[in-house]
Structures are given as C-alpha cells and as structure tokens.
Amino acid sequence: MKDEIYRVAARHGVAVVVVAAGFIRVPQNPLITRVAAGAGMDAADDRIAGEAGPGDVVVTADVPLAARCVKAGAAVLAPTGKAFTEADIGMALAVRDLMTDLRAAGEVTGGPRPFGPRDRSAFLQALEQAVRRAARTVAAGRTGPDSRAEG
Questions:
Q1: For residue range 30-52, what is the model confidence (pLDDT) as tens digits?
Q2: Number of structural domains in the chain
Q3: Pfam families this protein is in (predicted)?
Q4: 20, 29, 71, 104: least CB-packed within 10 angstroms?
Q5: Can you list the alpha helix ranges (DSSP code H) found in the chain?
Q6: Which residues of 57-66 are buried (b: 16+ CB within 10 A; e: fewer)?
Q7: Segment 55-59 mean pLDDT
Q8: Is-contact 135 14, C-beta < 8 A?
Q9: Contact by Cβ (8 Å): 46, 64
C-alpha cells in the first residue's frame, strides 16, 4: 500500500510524511519524509493527529486515529479505500468498540479479509480523489498538501 501512496504522491507532486514509532524504510525521494515519533504506545498516532488538518490526506486502519484526524479536518482513508467522514466516524468507532468488547469476552470475531486486487484498485481510486480534493483545499487557502501514512 505504501508504494501506491508514493506513486500517487509523485504523480501529483505532493509530500508524503511517513510517521512510525520506530525505523521504517522509505524510498529516497525529496517528496518523502520519514518521522520517528518516538517511544510510547500512541506516539505515532499523537504525532499524526497533532499535525493533520485541512488539505492533508491520512491513510490509516486505526479507527480512533481516523476519528482524531477527521475532527482536525483531514481527509482520512482506510487501506481498503473507504473514506472516514464526519458523518460515519461515530459508527466506525462504535463498531470497533463492540468488536473489542466481543473479543475481550472470548468471542472469536476473525480478522479482515485478505487485501486483494479489488481492494488495491479501490484504494488507488479513493487516494487519487482524496489527493485532488486536498489540492483544491490547499489552492483555496492553505500552503501545501501532505499525504500522511501511518507506519
């Protein structure tokens, strides 16, 4: 998925900031920056949420992080291409909490289905649209779009 992010960002000439708690390898490209968020359970999430805002695109499967970034005004996509919005983030959090409670009670809930070609295609299409919208947001009054990937 990161390779897709890098390609879309390069095509649009936008910066990518990859934030991770530890070391993560990124391509040598002036548009790609790696940020080590430091130790701590939520250090990377705190860094991403603290810097995300209008004109940014955040890619994460972490629903609580998605909620924080949506609240900050960023466009947020799941790796499947599903957009998290103000209208549906509350439901996404509720489902996540329910599944957490079920697992804690011993219920076997399974995991997500494997990431396939359709998911990749849906993600690429959603990312293209999000980057274009972010560029319009920036053109309307902010200095520069970023695509932020959680590592």
A1: 999 999 988 888 999 999 999 99
A2: 1
A3: DUF188 (PF02639)
A4: 104
A5: 2-12, 43-51, 63-71, 89-104, 117-139
A6: bbbbebbbbb
A7: 96
A8: yes
A9: no
